[in-house]
Amino acid sequence: MAIISLINRKGGVGKSTISVNLAAGLAIHLSRKPGSKSVLLIDMDDQLSATITAMGGGFDDKFQPVITAEKDYASALGQGYGASDSLIVDSLIPRDRQEKVKLFRTNKARMEALEATLKQREDAPFQLTYFLEPIKHEYSYIIIDNPPSAGMLPMNSLVASTHVLIPIEPDGLSLIGLADILRMIENVKRTTNPDLNVLGIIPSRFRMMRRQARDVIGDMERMYGHLLLPYIKDLAEISAATTAGYDVFSYCSEKSQAYRCLSNLVDAVLGKLGQA
Ligand SMILES: Nc1ncnc2c1ncn2[C@@H]1O[C@H](COP(=O)(O)OP(=O)(O)OP(=O)(O)O)[C@@H](O)[C@H]1O
Ligand SMILES: [Mg+2]
């Protein structure tokens, strides 16, 4: 069992896109292993991008409105009681497999209030850990998508996780941001969760044509070479799949760059977890 958080306080670097596709890719991997457990995707961001994509995209008539549920994840977590099975539903991804990634019913307004609600509780950073404790062993992988912040929500995710993945869009300032995130992780490791490991850094939305992107990747290789995972190119097909509410593995052909980038990433993650 691995609990993997996707973290970067910078917005738009591909956290949600990678969360959705990693969850789908791991579910496809598990579907080849009879009798295995499922993948749970947790959306900690009130933008609900991962939830919307995993439920079919907001503009599709197949879209399933789990984001307006009465009994929902945000209130369950905010009120500090354990997860109940009735909160967990099948998503639509991977589209072309029977066994789906699981997801919590959620509510946008309550998600927006979640950071403040959690802060009112004692042991604020531990609420997600307590919430997941009774259910985590029912899953092989739990993927947590996070908002672009360094606040109480990502803090809860880091305390509850076994691993972190850091998507980085390689540009001039991203190395400074990366040093900040690594410091935040070190801090959590030292104070609350010694079991937390950085699984890797994912250069994301990579444009080979950009000299600056190539330079930054060079710097990352020198400084963090052992942590670098296969990079994800900036490809129209990846954003088209996300907008359509599909995982890349169902939307794109196996020979496409998008499919190959993301399946290389899934393989590398499995390799690092020692479960290839
Ligand atoms: N590899 C990619 N190629 C092309 N477009 C991408 C890629 N990755 C993400 N995008 C697009 O970039 C936008 C931001 O991506 P995404 O929502 O995954 O980032 P994020 O880090 O989760 O953002 P936020 O911080 O706002 O939550 C989306 O429109 C998405 O479709
Ligand atoms: Mg996001």
* Mean pLDDT figure: 92
Q: What proportion strand?
A: 5-15%
The tally of strands reads 7
Question: Judging by the overall fold, what is the CATH architecture?
Answer: 3-Layer(aba) Sandwich
| CATH homology-level superfamily | P-loop containing nucleotide triphosphate hydrolases
Number of helices: 11
Widest sheet, order of strands: 3-4-2-5-1-6-7
- Order of helical and strand elements: EHEHHEEHHEHEHEHHHH
Structural class: alpha/beta
Overall structural domain count? 1
How much is the radius of gyration in Å? 18 Å
The hetero molecules present are: adenosine-5'-triphosphate, magnesium ion
Write the layout of secondary structure elements.
Layout: E1 2-6, H1 15-31, E2 38-43, H2 49-54, H3 73-78, E3 88-90, E4 102-104, H4 108-120, H5 127-132, E5 139-145, H6 152-160, E6 163-168, H7 174-191, E7 197-203, H8 211-224, H9 236-244, H10 248-251, H11 257-273
Parallel strand pairs: 1-5, 1-6, 2-4, 2-5, 6-7
Antiparallel strand pairs: 3-4
Helix pairs in contact: 1-11
Residues 15-16, 45, 47, 49, 145 line the site of magnesium ion (MG).
